[in-house]
């Protein structure tokens, strides 16, 4: 294979400090709104509505989320969302959480983010689906304004794969397509709930020239990735980490791709990789052993993401710095991940290009110039 694009860049030998990673422009495609609440906010909102929490103060609550999510099982990991979803059942609470999300991402150096959540999980106290999306958008707008326009944020609407509301949620995404919603997703426990259950929603979105990603190849292997791409037509893969099962490394170091892995790489299908989340759910052992290292070397369209900042106690800076420590990545590598992500965003082409040329490239150039 020829030189990696990152090798063409000046400064490719500099290993960045955590401070430099923090200041580097970062792009986030896979982040759950209900997985990123500030512990203090949960404590305050739970008190308002009388919801009982497993810990009383913000610090122990944060620890509870990280430890409970660290079980090695996706199903148990997902149980922790009961407490975040419980405090997201009225408009003002949702708007506050959405605003704080944008503030936290901007403070972390994220310049573009697609943040997802499942509207159907926020209607237990009588909000309509439309009101939920409106409340999130109000919070995002306030957060963007507070950040002085340093960040661009879009919503992705998720349907839960074990439920049967995906068509309704897909229609909601289309209704809001020009008002802050960039696409659609399905999430939830993977085993037993193949994405083909929601084929009508995906076909509708395709007819509408819309975009969607599918959580696939996280807890479950290649068949789930294959269905997501070849039956459902996913534009991107949420996690997709098990694509590594279709990659064989021979004893002499040569690498062979199976047909599915070859298709994913040939078609430049973006992988929304979330290292810390995968370690917690048992999909990977550690940063150093995460398939992201090999997939990056093989030049899959790899992107780096947080998934759930609360459950993983993480941020984009932490995920990227973890990779720097594990794989000796340089600023040029981080720039490569970031441009990959921006190219894969569900934003119109001209807007993606503007962020790459006016924000990402100059931001990395400044850091690389510092030496
Ligand atoms: O990594 C994941 N895999 C699958 N589902 C997830 C993951 N993280 C969060 N959710 C699910 O997505 C819903 C909407 O945001 C969350 O409530 C959670 O149930
Ligand atoms: Zn996710």
TrEMBL record:
Q: Which cofactor does it need?
A: Zn(2+)
Tell me which residues bind substrate: 32, 34, 188
Q: Does the keyword Zinc apply?
A: yes
GO CC field: cytosol
Annotated Gene Ontology MF terms? Answer: 2'-deoxyadenosine deaminase activity; adenosine deaminase activity; zinc ion binding
Q: Which UniProt keywords apply?
A: Hydrolase, Metal-binding, Nucleotide metabolism, Zinc
Q: Which residues are tagged with the site Important for catalytic activity? A: 239
Q: Which reaction does it catalyse?
A: adenosine + H2O + H(+) = inosine + NH4(+); 2'-deoxyadenosine + H2O + H(+) = 2'-deoxyinosine + NH4(+)
Q: What is its EC number?
A: 3.5.4.4
Q: Where is the active site?
A: 218 (proton donor)
* Adenosine deaminase domain residues: 25-361
Family matches, as InterPro entries: A_deaminase (IPR028893), A_deaminase_dom (IPR001365), Ado/ade_deaminase (IPR006330), Metal_Hydrolase (IPR032466)
Q: Any binding details for the cofactor?
A: Binds 1 zinc ion per subunit.
The answer, when asked if Metal-binding is one of the entry's keywords, is: yes
Q: GO:BP terms for this protein?
A: adenosine catabolic process; hypoxanthine salvage; inosine biosynthetic process; nucleotide metabolic process; purine ribonucleoside monophosphate biosynthetic process
Entry binding sites for Zn(2+)? 30, 32, 215, 307
Highest taxon of the source? Bacteria
Function noted in UniProt: Catalyzes the hydrolytic deamination of adenosine and 2-deoxyadenosine.
Family note: Belongs to the metallo-dependent hydrolases superfamily. Adenosine and AMP deaminases family. Adenosine deaminase subfamily.
Cross-referenced HAMAP family: A_deaminase
Annotated protein name in UniProt: Adenosine deaminase
Q: Which organism is it from?
A: Nocardioides zhouii
């Amino acid at each position: 294979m020829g030189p990696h694009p990152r090798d063409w860049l000046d400064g490719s030998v500099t290993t960045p400090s955590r401070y430099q990673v923090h200041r580097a422009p970062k792009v986030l495609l896979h982040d759950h709104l209900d997985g990123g609440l500030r512990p203090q906010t949960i404590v305050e909102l739970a008190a308002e509505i009388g919801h009982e929490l497993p810990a009383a103060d913000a610090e122990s609550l944060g620890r509870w989320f990280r430890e409970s999510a660290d079980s090695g099982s996706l199903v148990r990991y997902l149980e922790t969302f009961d407490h975040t979803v419980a405090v997201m059942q009225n408009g003002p609470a949702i708007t506050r959480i959405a605003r704080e999300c944008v503030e936290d991402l901007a403070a972390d150096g994220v310049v573009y983010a697609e943040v997802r959540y499942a509207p159907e999980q926020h209607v237990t106290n009588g909000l309509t689906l439309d009101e939920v999306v409106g409340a999130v958008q109000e919070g995002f707008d306030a957060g963007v304004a507070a950040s002085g326009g340093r960040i661009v944020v879009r919503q992705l609407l998720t349907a839960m794969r074990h439920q049967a509301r995906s068509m309704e949620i897909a229609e909601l995404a289309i209704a809001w397509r020009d008002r802050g919603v960039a696409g659609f997703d399905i999430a939830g426990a993977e085993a037993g709930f193949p994405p083909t259950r929601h084929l009508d929603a995906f076909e509708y979105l395709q007819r509408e020239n819309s975009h969607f990603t599918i959580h696939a190849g996280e807890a479950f292997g290649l068949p789930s990735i294959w269905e997501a791409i070849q039956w459902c037509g996913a534009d991107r893969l949420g996690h997709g980490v098990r694509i590594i099962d279709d990659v064989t490394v021979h004893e002499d170091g040569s690498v062979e791709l199976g047909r599915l892995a070859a298709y994913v790489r040939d078609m430049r299908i973006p992988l929304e990789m979330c290292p810390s989340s995968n370690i917690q759910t048992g999909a990977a052992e550690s940063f150093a052993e995460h398939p992201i290292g090999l997939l990056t070397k093989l030049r899959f369209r790899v992107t780096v993401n947080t998934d759930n900042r609360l459950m993983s106690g993480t941020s984009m800076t932490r995920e990227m710095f973890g990779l720097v420590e594990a794989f000796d990545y340089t600023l040029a590598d981080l720039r490569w991940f970031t441009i990959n992500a921006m190219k894969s965003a569900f934003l119109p082409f001209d807007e993606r290009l503007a962020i790459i040329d006016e924000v990402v490239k100059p931001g990395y150039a400044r850091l690389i110039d510092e030496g």
